[in-house]
């Protein structure tokens, strides 16, 4: 079995290691990629081919792990080339997911049925992380359990995995923004240590570790998180016909906070 990756950052490299440990043939390309990505891919031990077209054409399972803003374009450019399953693991809205599905369906029914949406719940490097899958043929990927991946099929509706990811992200990313802002304020009073100390009393002994992890992750990937918040707002715009979801001030504030971070 050959599994190919379009994009090779932390997600792809972490998943690749598990697959390689279970004797799966993993491939990608570094054509036109950054020096950081090239180094990561070369050190991973995967097979590197000349182009992403070659990756798509050679893969039994093609996995997209790019930024949310690139996801639709990548699916149209490379996802349609594979004769196997195309798995999107990007943090995209149900609307973007449907755009990909409809594009594939416009080509033929086989392409759309072989499109599977995946959502990573939890930090990719965590032992507790799980990949939720949805789509007509999502059960076909349960075999990945035998190759080191924690997989769960959530439904046959292509948008199901995206919905659960959006709902979780509304909570987790807003919490990250509030934690970051409160910490920066405490630092301005030279009370950073006290911030973690007093909140650990009410939030539990693991609060400091979790909060510092959130802050570090935000600093390292604030641009991607900003893109993810844009996808969340796109999702919310589609359900604003209900007065219950009319105002998204906290979500917009979270997006703006991520944009401000340098």
UniProtKB/TrEMBL annotation:
Residues 2-77 form the Pyrroline-5-carboxylate reductase catalytic N-terminal domain. InterPro entries: 6-PGluconate_DH-like_C_sf, 6PGD_dom2, NAD(P)-bd_dom_sf, P5C_Rdtase_cat_N. It holds the Pfam family F420_oxidored. This is Putative dehydrogenase. It comes from Methanobrevibacter arboriphilus JCM 13429 = DSM 1125.
């Amino acid at each position: 079995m050959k599994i190919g990756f379009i994009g090779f950052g932390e997600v792809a490299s972490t998943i690749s290691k598990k697959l390689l440990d279970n004797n799966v043939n993993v491939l990608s390309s570094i054509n036109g990629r950054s020096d950081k990505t090239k180094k990561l891919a070369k050190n991973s031990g995967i097979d590197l081919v000349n182009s992403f077209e070659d990756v798509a054409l050679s893969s039994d399972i093609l996995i997209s792990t790019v930024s949310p803003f690139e996801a639709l374009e990548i699916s149209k450019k490379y996802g349609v080339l594979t004769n196997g399953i195309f798995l999107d693991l990007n943090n995209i809205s149900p609307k973007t997911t449907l755009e990909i599905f409809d594009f594939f369906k416009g080509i033929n029914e086989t392409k759309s049925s072989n499109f599977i949406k995946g959502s990573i719940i939890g930090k990719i490097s965590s032992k507790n992380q799980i990949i939720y899958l949805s789509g007509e043929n999502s059960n076909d990927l349960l075999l990945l359990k035998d190759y080191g991946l924690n997989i769960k099929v959530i439904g046959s509706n292509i948008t199901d995995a995206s919905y659960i990811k959006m709902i979780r992200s509304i909570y987790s990313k807003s919490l990250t923004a509030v934690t970051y802002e409160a910490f920066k304020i405490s630092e301005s009073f030279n009370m950073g240590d006290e911030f973690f100390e007093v909140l650990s009393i009410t939030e539990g002994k693991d609060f400091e570790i979790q909060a510092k992890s959130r802050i570090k992750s935000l600093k390292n990937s604030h641009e991607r998180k900003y893109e993810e918040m844009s996808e969340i707002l796109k999702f919310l715009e589609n359900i604003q016909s209900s007065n219950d979801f009319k105002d998204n001030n906290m979500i917009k504030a979270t997006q703006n906070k991520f944009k401000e971070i340098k």
